[in-house]
Design a protein that fits this description.
With 72 residues, this protein is mainly alpha-helical. It is built from 2 helices and no strands.
């Protein structure tokens, strides 16, 4: 790779050819977005978990009804 004297350098003066270190530091220094509140980790899986429980209960009810009709 050719040396580019106009390329940005990091705070320590180390050359980063892709600029990824500078972009990462800018992202970290920026902080969390102010426009939206952070979602709680327990709130996200609650929806799919409730649907799964309802689906399992429905399957058990259907199987019980089939068994009752077949044996009765």
């Amino acid at each position: 790779m050719a040396h580019n004297p106009h390329a940005p350098q990091g705070p320590e003066g180390n050359y980063d050819p892709a600029g990824s270190t500078q972009m990462f530091r800018a992202f970290v220094d920026e902080g969390a977005p102010q426009g939206r509140p952070a979602a709680t980790p327990a709130a996200a899986p609650a929806g799919p978990r409730v649907g799964l429980i309802v689906g399992v209960v429905a399957v058990i009810v259907v199987l019980a009804a089939v068994a009752w009709l077949a044996l009765g």
